[in-house]
Every structure is written in C-alpha cells, then in structure tokens.
Input
Amino acid sequence: MTLRLGAHIDQTDPVGEAAARDADLVQFFLGDPQGYKGPEVRYAGGADGLRDDASAAGIDLYVHAPYIVNVATTNNRIRIPSRKLLQKHVDAAAEIGAKGLIVHGGHVGSEDELATGFDNWRKAIEATDLKLPLLIENTAGGDHAMTRHLDRIARVWEAIAAAEGSEMVGFCLDTCHAHAGGNDLATVVDDVRRVTGRIDLVHCNDSRDDFDSGADRHTSLGAGRIDPDLLAAVVRDAGAPVVCETPGGADEHRADFTWLRDRL
Output
C-alpha cells in the first residue's frame, strides 16, 4: 500500500514541520482548541501563502476543529456557538486548501434523550455550508457520547443521511479512542464501514490506558496498551491517510512513522 502519513503539529509553519518529518501531510488547530474566539492563520504568508506553499510542496493539510465544538448538545448556550464556530473553521480550512476538517462527535447531558443529539447533528449539517469534507471522529469516553459506540455512530449517520450536504460528511477513525472506547480493533474497520460506508482519515495513536477505560490519553506507537499488530492492521485495512497525534516533536514522530512502516 502507498501510505500517506503525517502528524499533528503546531500551525506556525506546517510546510516546514512536514519537511522536518518527511511527512506527506500535517494536521493542526487554527486557533485555540479550547476557546470560542474563532480561527486564526499564523503562517507568515497568510492563508493564501499556506495554501500555495503546501500545494507546491505536495503536502496535504488537515485542520482539527476546537475540542469545545459540541453541535449535539441540547444546551443552546453551547450548541449555537458551536455551530457558528464550526462554520468559521470550515471557512478558514477551505481557505487554506485543507483536505478535511476533523470534529469530535460531541455528547448530550445525562438527562437528555440521545435521539435529540442525533437529530441535532442533522440540523448542524443542514445549517453549515460545507466547503470541504467534514470528518466526524469517534471519541473515547462518556456514557452520553454520540460517537463512542458503534450503534450510536450508526444513528448519527442515519440522522445525517437525511440532511442536505450529507455527501460532504466523512469519518475519522482514532485508534486510541476506539480502544479506550471499548471497540474491538480486530473488527473496527469493517464495523465502522458497515455503518458509515467510509473511513476518510485514521488517527493512529497508541493508548496509555486499558481497553474500554474511557480515557483519552495518547502515547507513542508501541509504548502503550494496544496490540502492535492490531494497530498496524487498522491502518492497513482502512487504506486511508494517517495522522499520528503522538507526543514529541519531529524526531519522535519520525520514530513513530518508522515503527508503523516496519509493521506494514
């Protein structure tokens, strides 16, 4: 297989960070991952410069939406700002020529109906002008999460299928989140494809914690609790571009890339 491989990096110089890792792609935040302030492009050449320089270097860009985005919630004070923030990040990611915008599935409150959360995803897709693929990511923890368990991922997809713009929605499979969320990595690629029809990106991360722990704590490949053969098999079977969201800088990421390539 031809593996397109990269890492999550700081957004100041994505092209330079990719070169330092011999990476085919990079992922980064545009702004504060924990704030509602909105996206900002810190690249010296601005959005146009980043798009042109990445294209010239053959580097694919992916943007991760802020963690606080939760379009599923019934809380208006979170859901409405989340939708607005999501649209701003869609616009900014499209402006730099990103291949996709990754967003977490979100959750509802303990007193809320899960069905409301699924339908809020439908409404969010209909309310958003998707100028690039929106890749919904599975999450590790939470009893009321939209995308921890496969049956709920299926219901998100059923809800979204009714929305105009659903063809622009894809899936990002995170290996640490799947393991910590209690999903069998031996079958997860087939399981996800059965309910979504697609896997557009893989976040290849080892997990510091045990299976079904609900803990979202990434570690370097081979240093955690995931069976190395299973981790490599997910990447091979998914056949999608890969981002390592593992600790460290260029040296550590190159070591992760080598670890993964050796097992493929």
